[in-house]
């Protein structure tokens, strides 16, 4: 789900089959149409807002899992709703240290190219601008150089 052309293009390059730009009820309806009313088998929620978490819950089919990275702030949900919808949730910090050695090997062997997500390069002194650019969706990820 994305409304940003550069992110959509990257998603398609990495194997996405559908791009959904709608949000809220319209986004949920689109997911339901694509899945013949069932909902998604698994949902990864990465934004951490009330709107994005609610949308993730509504897009998930019974028996599915919602994964989220980080700590959503100010997000509330009804545990009873999740229980009766038979939806599970599992979240936590991104376990970077656990996967880093393997990922570094893949990068060095040129099997993956993580640099594709960096579409803005700034000096370290402009770190604030880098975060603003990502927050405002002017950049997918900012590469900071010393």
Instruction: Note the beta-strand portion.
Output: 15-25%
Please tally the β strands and state the result: 5
* Structural class by helix and strand composition: alpha/beta
Q: How many angstroms does the end-to-end distance come to?
A: 33 Å
Low-confidence stretches: none
Largest sheet: 3 strands, parallel
Order of helices and strands: HHEHEHEHEHE
Count of helix runs: 6
Tertiary shape: globular
User: What's the alpha carbon Rg, rounded to whole Å?
Assistant: 17 Å
Features:
146 residues; alpha/beta; three-stranded parallel sheet; two-stranded parallel ribbon; 6 helices; 5 strands
Summarize the structure.
The protein is built from 6 helices and 5 strands. It is α/β, with parallel strands linked by helices and 146 residues long. The longest helix has 13 residues, at 96-108.
Structural commentary:
With 146 residues, this protein is an alpha/beta fold. Helix content is 40%, strand content 22%. It has six helices and five strands; from the N terminus they run ααβαβαβαβαβ. It has helices spanning 5-13, 24-34, 50-59, 79-85, 96-108, 127-135, and strands spanning 40-45, 60-69, 88-92, 118-123, 141-145. The strands form two sheets. A three-stranded parallel sheet has the order 1-2-3, covered by helices on one side. Strands 4-5 form a two-stranded parallel sheet. Helix 3 links the parallel strand 1 and strand 2. Helix 2 packs parallel to helix 3. The chain starts with a helix and ends with a strand.
């Amino acid at each position: 789900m994305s409304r940003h052309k550069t992110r959509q293009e990257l998603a398609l390059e990495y194997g996405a089959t559908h791009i959904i730009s709608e949000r809220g009820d319209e986004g949920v309806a689109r997911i339901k149409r694509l899945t013949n009313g069932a909902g998604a088998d698994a949902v990864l929620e990465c934004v951490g807002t009330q709107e994005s978490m609610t949308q993730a819950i509504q897009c998930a089919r019974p028996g599915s899992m919602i994964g989220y990275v980080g700590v959503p702030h100010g997000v509330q949900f009804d545990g009873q709703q999740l229980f009766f919808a038979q939806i599970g949730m599992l979240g936590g910090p991104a376990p970077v240290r656990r996967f880093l050695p393997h990922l570094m090997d893949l990068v060095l062997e040129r099997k993956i190219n993580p640099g594709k997500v960096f579409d803005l390069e700034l000096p370290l002194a402009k770190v604030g601008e880098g975060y603003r650019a990502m927050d405002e969706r002017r950049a997918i990820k900012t590469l900071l150089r010393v």
